[in-house]
Amino acid sequence: TGPISVQDLSEKIAVKSQKVVQLLESLGKSVTAYSILDVETSELIITEMGHKSQRVGLEDLEARWWGVKSKTYEDRPPVVTIMGHVDHGKTSLLDALRETSVASGEKGGITQHIGAYQTRLKSGKQVTFIDTPGHEAFIRMRERGSAVTDIIVLVVAADDGVKAQTIEAIRHAKTSNVPIIVAINKIDKTTAKPDVVRSELLNHGVVVEKMGGEVLDVEVSALTKKNLDALIETILLQAEMMELTCSPDTKARGTIIESHMRKGHGHVATVLIQNGTLRKGDIFVAGLLSGKVRMMFDAEGHVVQKATPGQPVEVLGFSRSPLSGDRFMSLDQESQAREFVEWKKSQALSDDSSEVTSNLPENSSDLA
Ligand code: GDP
Ligand code: MG
Question: What is the model's pLDDT at position 312?
Answer without folding.
Answer: 92
